[in-house]
Amino acid sequence: MVAVSADSISMEYRNNTMVTLLFKSNHPFTIYLAKLITLVVYGITLLLAGFICSLILMLLLGNNYSWSDNFHGYSLITALGYNFLGAFIYLLFTISLSLLLVILLKSNSIVIIIGLAVDFLGANFSGLLMNILPKQLWAWNPLNMINIIVQLSNQSVIKITHLSNFELFLGNGCYTLLFIILGLWAFKNYQK
């Protein structure tokens, strides 16, 4: 989603599609919101496809797994649902951050590199920093928010994040809203 988010905006600037949209509309907010909604719908479609593929695989593996098998205190199907809920929440975070970065940096390749670094190394880097800095303060950093994907179905991750599920929901929501507001501000001012 980082690559799709970054490339969709930068490609429209490269092909002058964005200039045409901005010329025909007096409200950059509606353009930015339309891009955001399109990316969220695309992300939800990918998540649903992944969920359906997971269910099909579970059915095909039939005798090896049961829907009621225990996975960190939850049934397998419940844990799968929690993981996809966490992935959806983090999807919103990722899309809003990617849009903000591509508008500010004007380079989809740099945004993709930053996005991949955050996705693959963010949680580990956050854990290292929490060992050095005060946990109560550093626990709210944006890199720690990726852990919502795992923590909802595995409560032992709380020892790593130092945040409850509700606090991770709240943190992801606040950062997503902040990135959307900053992205809108940057989008409006980028055109001047």
From TrEMBL:
This protein's UniProt keywords: Membrane, Transmembrane, Transmembrane helix
PANTHER family recorded: INTEGRAL MEMBRANE PROTEIN-RELATED, MEMBRANE PROTEIN
Transmembrane segments: 32-60, 80-103, 110-133, 168-187
Name of the protein in its database record: ABC transporter permease subunit
Molecular-function GO term, any one: ABC-type transporter activity
Listed GO CC annotations: plasma membrane
Domain of life per record: Bacteria
